[in-house]
Amino acid sequence: MCQLLLPDFCEVVNYKENLMRSLNLRQVKFTNKADQINSDYGITIPKHYQINTRNGADKIIGKKEISDDFGIELSVEIVETDHVPTIFNREFIITKEVNTDGIKNKGIINTGNGADKITGVAKTDLSANAIIIFQALALAKTTDTAVISNLFTSVELNATTDGIDNSYSHINTGNGKDYISGFADASITAVAIANADISAIVDDITQTPNSENLTAFAQAITVSIAQAKIIAKGINNTKGRISTGNDDDTICGKATSVNSTFSETFAGTFVTATPNSQAVAEAVANAVAETEDMAIAIDNQKGLINTGNGNDHIIAIAEARNKAIAINNTHGLINTGNGNDTIIANATSNESYSIFGGHINMGNGNDQLKASNFGGGVNINMGNGDDFVVGFGEATLNGGSGFDILNVGTYNIEDFQINLGTNNNQVTFELNNIIMNTIGFEQFDFANGSFNINF
């Protein structure tokens, strides 16, 4: 399989402790056999370093998961005075950045020839728990809540989750049926609990039925959580390069981001909760509902993806509450080479794009590109062959030579304003100020029928 390279001064126990942080791939010696690396604490390739896994069907699998309470902690120092524990010092610690990477590549990965597999899995689960905030206030009840409120409103939490982060870096898998996949799951959940016990804590803090300080603190929580941003990327190839060489290769990215509210009122006990207790709990819940979340399955912004010759597959699935992009290709380039290639991109969100921006060249062969919609003026060249495209949006599509079919999905032909260009070779579709230009397609499929063009 493979061997771990340890420095002479490093004991195995120390190496295992470091492994819990992330596995530095420099410490692995690869062979020409089928090497397998699997880390549950993430994998890192340092900047400026080149990792060569040599020939063989190699597998590199990095997984990492972070679960935390919205990055909020209360550090308390307790000393004994006359055998009585007393709070001596307290400090709020609020984390501004949470980064979770299954595989973090800052250098170059060369996997050589063979059916290689690179998989990164990352999960971030943040929760804004009203109980924790109440308990923190109870411990810090002698602290001016106005000061704490100002601290909260100044914080902007950014949580980034990447299955594979290859930004500004290179991945070369060589020839062979290679598989690159990245999975990212990011979520922030409000657990808003108000009951009699919590009311007692809050009342002990405020000493009054309606505390201005507590109200300000509740508003501060709302501002802080509401301005948080969570971003999930299956494969982050921003200004990076991915080359899979010749043969039937697969690149798969999936990203999911969620912001949700889970309210527990404990029925009868909720009615006994004071307005102060309910105010903080509701502030947490309402704030999370405003949190900005985004999911990008494959982020190829200013990046390059070459899959080489062969029957290649690119699959991208993004799901979010606010914004989802299956393939963000802004100023990027994707070349699938010659062969019967397939791109499937699907995004689900309040604002969603299957493929956004950049250029895509499918090469020669009977290619398929299936997307629910396009955005950012993406340019797609299907090349020579009998090609099939599904989707509508702000784009320019070139079917190339062969009998090419464009399917606009659930739209009827009457939904569009359609203009025919010179010799009927160019067809423009317009709907709600969105324009899609096409050239070289022989058949157009609508929900209520098809029509063919001869030119």
Write up what this structure looks like.
- The chain is an alpha/beta fold and 455 residues long.
- Helices cover 15% and strands 48% of the residues.
- The strands form three sheets. It has a 30-stranded mixed β-sheet that branches.
- It is flat.
- It starts with a strand and ends with a strand.
- The model is unreliable at 1-19, 73-81, 84-93, 191-211 and 261-273 (pLDDT under 50).
Brief summary of the model shown:
The protein has helices at 12-19, 130-139, 145-153, 196-206, 212-226, 275-290, and strands at 3-4, 23-24, 28-29, 36-39, 43-45, 50-52, 59-68, 72-81, 84-94, 97-105, 108-110, 117-129, 158-165, 170-172, 179-193, 229-236, 241-243, 250-264, 292-299, 304-306, 313-319, 323-328, 333-335, 342-348, 351-356, 359-361, 368-381, 388-398, 405-407, 417-420, 426-431, 434-439, 443-446, 449-452. With 455 residues, the chain is of the alpha/beta class.
Give the overall form.
flat
Number of domains: 1
Instruction: Give the beta-strand count.
Output: 34
Q: What share of residues is helical?
A: 10-25%
Low-confidence stretches: 1-19, 73-81, 84-93, 191-211, 261-273
